[in-house]
């Protein structure tokens, strides 16, 4: 029996790692062994850093990188500003009321990005938010707010209500309770919500390509390089772009569970 | 609803207003714009014009990608989840590994797969020639191109399906398996007679959640196959960048119509659970 498990283990390990291996292969091999060869060898023939050096000196990396950083951080901050109160409210409401609100958030997550982005681009041009980091962050928040709210709700639900009653008897206002007791106690969940929001914004493409095409974020810049045939630049940028997110994903593993991804509704 | 509940509901208002402004208003706006002509008058011409852009073929291609990708992800997801449901040496390594593709940006995974499925100089063809099989032109027709999209998308999304199915497998009482093995059922029969029937609702959740995302698939086909063949999102984007906002809204609204059906299905299923 365990033999089948290990065969599956081996097959899936290769399956999950193969595309990443190909990225590394193309990034660190001379072009004659990769994109310029008819049937490129699937192993390293020669190691080079020239592709990376060329990409980072000849193509525009820094501006898209900084824009991605700013937008992702804004998305994380907005997620906390709106998500902490929402998660707190939902964690204290009876299911009868919380459930419809959760469904509403879940529906938002399903509205196609392109449907939202096209009319918003017209509005943003009028409001001078088109191509700005804050404009893009406000719209990308749509993807992360529901997720952040679910994570907060889950974290806050684990904190006993009695503590809140106790604080109130001691004369703490709701805001002071949230700031001084709830948030510090729930800090791990809050950090996870921030980082997951950051990560989703960092990866986001649809809104970015429509709402911020002139000063693109990194994923859009990578796409632009691919369409122009600068494949090696695209690979080099992809590597720098991917490494922090893979690390975050592994760290945040316990928050990327089925129940959050399905929208917090348990079967 | 008592006063206490109202107080808590108050805290959720910013979030509700937020999604109202940034999701519901634009969605209604898109529907409105799709019925406006360049002269600002009400018209159905935008929808008529979509026929010049082969809207039927686009819808069918979108459905093909969705169903194909769902089948692949369900199959692989079941495999990964069945492994993760067991105890074995190296389990924590494997569970970390199986989540890695989730952390790889869609654009990046598209680029990796574009190197694999290159007609001249792709790694898939390298392996085919090694096995003495004739190399394939991955962009020869729309079905092969769509298959490439399905495979690339499944790599990134199998982990999500696996996590949902794993949550389901963990909820199946162990007694059922003991009882089945006492009755002489082997691993294969236990899978078909115990695991699958008990996993039904989780499979339904995974299919609907992923189905909605598959319908919305955008960056991956854009990078991998460009605008050939078109699917609903790439059609809307192409029209947005080359024609009017009215025409592109019409394409987006057709996409929204399909998604709405899936959303209603989801809520119905959610209500039953």
Task: Characterise the protein shown here.
The complex is a heterodimer of chains A (267) and B (273). Chain A has 267 residues and is an all-alpha fold. Chain A is 76% helix and 0% strand. Chain A has 13 helices and no strands. In chain A, helix 1 packs across helix 12 (231-251), helix 3 runs parallel beside helix 6 and helix 4 (95-110) runs antiparallel to helix 6. The longest helix of chain A has 31 residues, at 62-92. Mean pLDDT of chain A is 87; it is low at 263-267. Chain B is mainly α and 273 residues long. Helix content of chain B is 77%, strand content 0%. The longest helix of chain B is centred in the first third of the chain and has 32 residues, at 3-34. Chain B has helices spanning 3-34, 45-49, 55-84, 91-97, 100-103, 106-116, 123-130, 142-170, 174-182, 187-198, 200-215, 219-225, 232-242, 245-272. Chain B starts with a helix and ends with a helix. The mean pLDDT of chain B is 89. In chain B, helix 6 (106-116) runs parallel beside helix 12 (219-225) and helix 8 (142-170) packs antiparallel against helix 11. At the A-B interface, helix 1, helix 3, helix 4, helix 5 and helix 6 of A face helix 1, helix 3, helix 4, helix 5 and helix 6 of B.
